[in-house]
Structures are given as structure tokens and as C-alpha cells.
Amino acid sequence: MDRKAMAAAFPATVPVLLGYLAIGMAFGFMLEAIGYNFIWAFFMSLTVYAGSGQYLGVTMLASAAALGEVAFLTLIINFRHLVYGLSMLEKFRGMGLRKLYMIFSLTDETYALLASARAPVGIDPRNYYFSIALLDHSYWILGSVIGAMLGAALPINTQGIDFAMTALFIVIAVGQWESYKSHLPAVLGAGAALLFLILVGQEQMLLPALAVIVAGLMALRSRLDEGEPEEKEAEV
User: Fold this and answer.
1) 38, 137, 158, 167 — which has fewest CB within 10 A?
2) Cα–Cα distance for residue pair 98/130, rounded to 1 Å
3) 184 plus 72 within the same structural domain
4) How many CA atoms within 13 Å lie on the side-chain side of 97?
């Protein structure tokens, strides 16, 4: 473990730390409410680590859903990660076996950080990216366990608590908006989502919206590259 890279990555992950403790605890509360204790919260967050997929998992466990239904809905909800992975091909290049973990740990929030991450001077970029992913994962596990333990000790009403994840993603999206000169990707994504929400409804909008977004970003790639945030040198 590269301690210098870990120390350099920590400040960049503080927003995710605060958010993941909150929404991880919310997940832990929900899981405990349907009869699964902190041990289940720990192992589910360790091995599944899918954010919205885990929130869905609570509902599926509570309703004893069929395995095929769980697999299909998880695929649909997390299909956006295909787009994430394609955009990370260059950053993950040369990471060896760590690349497998980077793929596994590519949540919405980690992706948002990695998309604009620039390693400080003197820090190996690959170690820096790996440290960001590892820290974010540890925050989620910690929040989940704390939430499940508190849920067992305190009577907590979990209705509406799953909105915490949406709130965290909005905060990170605002940061991304401020970091880039070009807001075209955000406008394209919002426009495509709204269009297909109107045309086909909430249940069917995800795949066509993603297809339009990917096609649009590929067509506009040269123009978007001009709007990337400038790389800043940092003291170490």
C-alpha cells in the first residue's frame, strides 16, 4: 500500500466520506429493519457494493423476489456502469490485477471523482486512483455497519431515507459542473433523460437515454476534450 498516495487521495474523498457514512447508515437501517444484522450489512457492502443496487436488494429481500427478477433489475439499474467503464479505459491501463478491483469499485461517486482526478506531483497516478477507490469502498462499508448497529439499538423510521443517495449524487454533480468549462455533457444527459421519461415513461427510459448519451458524447468528443479541467500541480 502506497501511504503517500493514500494520504494524497484522502482530501479528495472527504465529500464521499461524509456522504457514504450517511447513505451507508441509511442502507444499514433499512437492512436491519427487515431482519438482517450488521454482519449481513458488512458482507453485502464488501461484495456487492452497488449503492442503489443494495437499496433495491433490501426491497427484494423483504419481498422474497425470485433470483431471475433480482438479476434482471440489478442489470437494468446498473447498466450505466457500462458507460463508466468505457470512459475509464485509459486511466485503468497498466494497473495489473488492481484493474479488476477498480472495475468492481466504480460506483457513481467514485467515477465522478476519478473522471476529473489528477494525481499530485510526485504521486504515481495509478496508486492515487486505486487509493480513491479503496477509501470510498471503506467509507461505504463503515457506514453500512454503523447504520445496522444503530438500527438494532434504536427505533428508527426508515421511510424516505433512501433519498440520501440521490442527494449525495446531486452534490457531486454540482462539483463536476463547476470543474468543467463545458457543460454540454450534463445538458445532454439531462435532456436525453427528460426526453425519454416523457416518451416511454420511468420504467423504460434508462436504456434508450443511455444510448443517446453515449452516441452524443462520442460525436462531440473532440469538442468536449477542450473543456477538460486544467491539471493543477499540488504540494506533497
Assistant:
1) 167
2) 7
3) no
4) 0
Could you give the CA distance from residue 17 to residue 109 in angstroms, rounded to a whole number? 10
> Residue 78 has which C-alpha cell?
446498473
- The pairs formed by 99-107 with CB atoms below 8 angstroms and a separation of 24 or more are 101/130, 101/133, 101/134, 102/129, 102/130, 102/133, 104/49, 105/49, 105/133, 105/134, 105/136, 105/137, 106/81, 106/133, 107/49, 107/50, 107/51, 107/136, 107/140
Looking at the predicted structure, is the pLDDT value of residue 8 above 70?
A: yes
Q: Does a structural domain hold residue 160? A: no
**Mean pLDDT over the full length of the chain:** 82
- How far apart (Å, rounded) are the C-alpha atoms in residues 193 and 210? 8
Residue 170, domain member (yes or no): no
Q: What is the mean pLDDT of residues 128-133?
A: 95
Question: For residue 97, what pLDDT is reported?
Answer: 92
Question: pTM higher than 0.90, yes or no?
Answer: no
Same domain (yes/no): 146, 208:
no
Give helix 184-200 / helix 206-219 axis angle, nearest 10°. 150
For residue 173, being part of any structural domain is answered with no
Provide the residue range defining the domain that includes 12. 3-153
Distance CA 95, CA 91 (A): 9
The C-alpha cell at 174 is 454540482
Confirm if 40 and 31 have CB atoms less than 8 A apart: yes
Residues 131 and 187 in one domain: no
* Shared-domain flag, residues 189 and 147: no
